[in-house]
Specification:
With about 475 residues, this protein is α/β, with parallel strands linked by helices. It has a single domain, classed as Amidase signature (AS) domain (Amidase signature (AS) enzymes), CATH 3.90.1300.10. The chain contains 15 helices and 11 strands. The protein is globular, with a radius of gyration of 21 Å. Bound molecules: glutamine (GLN).
Length: about 475
């Protein structure tokens, strides 16, 4: 194993024992970035200088005996989280040169742990997409097969962790954007409960769904990052004032007596047989480890989740994206005779096709005469979906599903077919609609391509899903496999 492939907990032990310095570790990650980036293209910005400065500072702190589990360890931040003094583009032409004057709360929290920020990760424009092909800058490639997508929208974050360009990354998840790329790149990705992590400084996409979470090499690392970023923030009114437990305490590898349900609606039509087979094997493993499995759970409203999501998310997006008018910040088209023309041209040239499609869908769904038929109806169905999860969790500690119905698809394969693209999130979208937490962990391969397993929990039961995921990783080694690149 080489230095850039260390997990957070491994690197921490070496840093603490002074067998490794943060500067050495940071240089190893930066070296790896320069080696593989021409092929993977996961980073929008590489912050070499800042990283080395932060690494030096971390080494000074460590020398003085001041070390946290994340001190001195490189992290990559998805480019929709504000970083003071460093460009935050959302992979959009609209924000191509936007330098935020403040840090997102998660970035502040990581800085308080003296981490090393090595760069900003590529994504689908404004987090709208499932493949990073909607990035206005460039497409990220899957390190397991460079002709395939890494998933999205946090595709840069996931690909960079898989390719060992960073020790871990942060992503955001509105309808699957942490878990689906985690599944596609064979890394561990957690979407916490809605309200668990502050979104202050996260560029808003769909505010009732957005949540920030970690992408890591294993569950232990995931728990360590969650420890650092979770918690109440008075600057985000949706964050909840619950105490943050130590998420590493639940990693006992003992899941005896836990009740796990397998909702049959998630084994959708069109699912690849290899995915279904890998899933059955993974669930059998959980049974071997002592969990009680019920294979016949039904969540009958599941098929409506996709439609509900594609009403609610675009509606909220159309409101959130109204702020990009070319006046306050971001791209501004000056070649116009009137204010209205300038605004129209700014939005016409600044936004990509998918973002415009979402704004139009959302504006339509919210407009007078259609509001009741679309937006209000979607909200009602959302309540039903939520209640269905509540009922299931009266019986089960967790639910298990595939993360995605297929292995990573080819770059270009679905770009002209939005519906096909939207379908790659069928297993992850309902989780955001219900607001519950879920984790994706590596659960096998089909012809060398990764397959992810999703474990879903009750609101604020991150400990339970981390526990199950950890037990699975203790008994398997899918998460240890690295792509040959
Ligand atoms: N792929 C979904 C979409 O395009 C989810 C995106 C996300 O979670 N940010 O909206």
């Amino acid at each position: 194993m080489t230095m850039h492939q260390l997990t957070i907990h491994e690197a921490h032990e070496l840093l603490k024992a002074k067998q490794l310095s943060s500067v050495e570790l940071t240089k190893a990650s930066l070296g790896r970035i320069h080696q593989v980036e021409p092929e993977v293209r996961a980073l929008v910005t590489i912050t070499d200088e800042l990283a080395l400065k932060q690494a030096q500072k971390a080494d000074e702190l460590i020398a003085a005996g001041d070390i946290s589990p994340l001190t001195g360890i490189p992290v990559l931040i998805k480019d929709n989280m504000c970083t003071k003094g460093t460009k935050t583009t959302c992979s959009s032409k609209m924000l191509e040169n936007f330098v935020p004057p403040y840090n997102a709360t998660v970035v502040e929290k990581l800085n308080a742990c003296s981490v090393v920020i090595i760069g900003k990760a590529n994504m689908d424009e404004f987090a709208m997409g499932s493949s990073t092909e909607n990035s206005a800058l460039f497409t990220t490639h899957n390190p397991w097969d460079l002709s395939r997508v890494p998933g999205g929208s946090s595709g840069g974050s996931a690909a960079a962790v898989a390719a060992s360009e960073t020790i871990y990354a942060l992503g955001s998840d509105t309808g699957g954007s942490i878990r689906q790329p985690a599944g596609f790149c064979s890394v561990t990705g957690l979407k916490p409960t809605y309200g668990r992590v502050s979104r202050y400084g996260l560029v808003a996409f769909a505010s009732s769904l957005d949540q920030i979470g970690p992408l890591t090499q294993d569950v232990t690392d995931c728990a360590l990052v969650l420890n650092a970023i979770a918690g109440y923030d008075p600057r985000d009114s949706t964050s909840v004032p619950y105490p943050t437990p130590d998420y590493t305490q639940c990693l006992t590898a003992n899941i005896k007596g836990l009740h796990i349900g397998v909702p049959k609606e998630y084994f959708v039509e069109g699912m690849q047989t290899e995915v279904a087979t890998a899933m059955r094997a993974a669930i059998n493993k959980l049974e071997e480890l002592g969990a009680t499995i019920d294979w016949e759970v039904s969540l009958p409203h599941t098929p409506y989740a996709l439609a509900v999501y594609y009403i609610i998310a675009p509606s909220e997006a159309s409101a959130n994206l109204a702020r990009y008018d070319g006046v306050k910040y971001g791209y501004s088209c000056q070649d116009a005779d009137s204010m209205w023309e300038a605004m129209e041209k700014t939005r016409q040239h600044g936004f990509g096709a998918e973002v415009k499609r979402r704004i139009m869908l959302g504006t339509y769904a919210l407009s007078a005469g259609y509001y009741d038929a679309y937006y209000l109806k979607a909200q009602k169905v959302r309540t039903l979906i939520r209640q269905e999860f509540d009922q299931a969790f009266e019986k089960f500690d967790a639910l298990v599903t595939p993360t995605s119905p297929t292995v990573p698809f080819k770059i270009g394969e679905r770009v002209d077919d939005p519906l096909q693209m939207y379908l790659s999130d069928v297993c992850t979208l309902p989780i955001n609609i219900a607001g519950v937490p879920a984790i994706s962990i590596p659960a096998g391969f089909a012809n060398g391509l990764p397959i992810g397993m999703q474990i879903i929990g009750k609101p604020f039961s991150e400990e339970t899903i981390l526990k199950i995921a950890h037990a699975y990783q203790q008994a398997t080694d899918w998460h240890k496999k690295k792509p040959e690149i």
